[in-house]
Amino acid sequence: MPATHPHTLLDRIVSGSGPPVVLIHGTGADAESNWGPLIESLSNRYTVVAPNLPGAGRTPAPTDRLELDQLAHDVIATVQDALDTDQGWHVVGLHSGRS
After folding, report:
1. Cα-flanking dihedrals φ and ψ of residue 87, to 5°?
2. What is the pTM of this model?
3. Continuous H helices in the chain
4. pLDDT tier at 67 (50, 70, 90 boundaries)?
5. For residues 86 and 34, what is the distance between their CA atoms, to the nearest angstrom?
6. Are 48 and 21 in contact (CB under 8 A)?
7. What value does the mean pLDDT of the chain take?
8. What is the torsional sign of CA 51, 57, 63, 64?
9. Is residue 18 a contact partner of residue 47, using CB atoms and an 8 Å limit?
């Protein structure tokens, strides 16, 4: 279920139970295509939250320029909503780089 925030609606995958791990996908992909097999493996020991960034999965593309601080706020709010806890979490990110 997506979480609603002031500027962005982030869809996410939530799976498993245990200490929280957040997986943030790279550009040009979505959470499932970047993390699908890893989500399955980690879900045996962790609660995995993998948000779909704007324009990926079921998260709509932004209609205005999306600033990095707003994206960070939306990811944090989405993860907190999914976990329903203030407990800390581990973050794993992926970026395709730039030439």
Report:
1. -60, 145
2. 0.84
3. 31-42, 68-83
4. confident
5. 26
6. yes
7. 85
8. positive
9. yes
